[in-house]
């Protein structure tokens, strides 16, 4: 079963605009991660936020985590055409082996 | 170069045939994973391994088998019992129970 549901499923914006993607999950987590996938390729890790953190930044990326609502958001500022990809959230559970469980993904299209 | 390598990139299988997908990593990671991705979908966990000579079923293990005889290698066999094997298969590895996962570039399997 997939742990996360992402919203929106698809997002289309212009270069220079900000893109916000949301992820909801179901169970207690150790950390939440965001990954990027270019079409037909493997996934690349973007950022990790631990359950005791509320916000994290990396370059043009800003991630927030609200454990009371079991949700996270990924903000990409000043988007570029090269940001066009699918973005996935993934959670590591808080119990047992911390297998990595992925959400359904958001397809982002950034037009020049 | 450290990384995770999947081969082949494309694989064609006839009905009733078993095929094996290769996954090799030189990152010295204990944990390895196999995911299946269908078009426009998220990743679903097939099998994972925490350590050599140990592996566990994920959410969709039926019709698949794995082995973990070496730390570096985690091959996936798609058996004839898997009725709908056409998909994109992704292998990943991570430090045991923590942190980010590193992905291979994937194998696209098609039944002909």
**Which percent range fits the helix content of chain A?**
under 10%
Mean pLDDT over all positions of chain B: 93
What overall geometry of chain A do the principal axes of the alpha carbons give?
globular
Instruction: Give the CA-CA distance, first to last residue of chain A.
Output: 37 Å
Class by SSE composition of chain A: mainly beta
How many helix segments of chain B?
Answer: 0
Shape of chain B: globular
Low-confidence stretches of chain A: none
Main sheet makeup of chain A: 6 strands, mixed
Radius of gyration of chain B from CA coordinates: 13 Å
For the sheet with most strands of chain B, the description reads: 7 strands, mixed
Count of individual beta strands of chain A: 11
Bin the strand percentage of chain B.
over 45%
Quick recap of the structure?
Chain A has 112 residues and is an all-beta fold. Chain A has strands at residues 5-7, 10-14, 19-24, 29-37, 43-50, 55-58, 61-66, 71-76, 85-93, 100-102, 106-111.
How would you portray this structure in words?
- The complex is a heterodimer of chains A (112) and B (112).
- Chain A has 112 residues and is mainly β.
- In chain A, 0% of the residues lie in helices and 58% in strands.
- In chain A, the strands form two sheets. In chain A, strands 2, 4, 5, 9, 10 and 11 form a six-stranded mixed beta sheet that branches. A five-stranded antiparallel beta sheet of chain A has the order 1-3-8-7-6, with no helix packed on it.
- The N and C termini of chain A lie far apart (37 Å).
- The model of chain A has no long low-confidence stretch (mean pLDDT 92).
- Chain B has 112 residues and is mainly beta.
- Chain B is 0% helix and 50% strand.
- Chain B has strands at residues 4-7, 10-13, 19-25, 31-37, 43-51, 54-57, 64-66, 76-78, 87-94, 102-103, 107-111.
- In chain B, strand 4 and strand 5 (43-51) form a beta hairpin.
- Chain B is globular.
- Chains A and B meet through strand 5, strand 9 and strand 10 of A and strand 4, strand 5, strand 9 and strand 10 of B.
């Amino acid at each position: 079963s997939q742990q996360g549901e992402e919203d929106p499923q698809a997002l289309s914006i212009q270069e220079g605009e900000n893109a916000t993607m949301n992820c909801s999950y179901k169970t207690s987590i150790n950390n939440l991660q965001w990954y990027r996938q270019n079409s037909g390729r493997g996934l690349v890790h973007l950022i990790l936020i631990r359950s005791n953190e509320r916000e994290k930044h990396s370059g043009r990326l800003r991630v927030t985590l609200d454990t009371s609502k079991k949700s996270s958001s990924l903000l990409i500022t000043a988007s570029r055409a090269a940001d066009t990809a699918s973005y996935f959230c993934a959670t590591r559970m808080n119990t047992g082996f911390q297998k990595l469980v992925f959400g359904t993904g958001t397809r982002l299209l950034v037009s020049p | 170069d450290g990384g995770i390598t999947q081969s082949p990139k494309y694989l064609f299988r006839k009905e009733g045939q078993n095929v094996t997908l290769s996954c090799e990593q030189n990152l010295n990671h204990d944990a390895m994973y196999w995911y299946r991705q269908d078009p426009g979908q998220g990743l679903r966990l097939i099998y994972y391994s925490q350590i050599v000579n140990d592996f566990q079923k994920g959410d969709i293990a039926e019709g698949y088998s794995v082995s973990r005889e070496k730390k570096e290698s985690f091959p996936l066999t798609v058996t004839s019992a898997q009725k709908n094997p056409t998909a994109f298969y992704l292998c990943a590895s991570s430090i045991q129970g923590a942190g980010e996962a590193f992905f291979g570039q994937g194998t696209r399997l098609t039944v002909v």
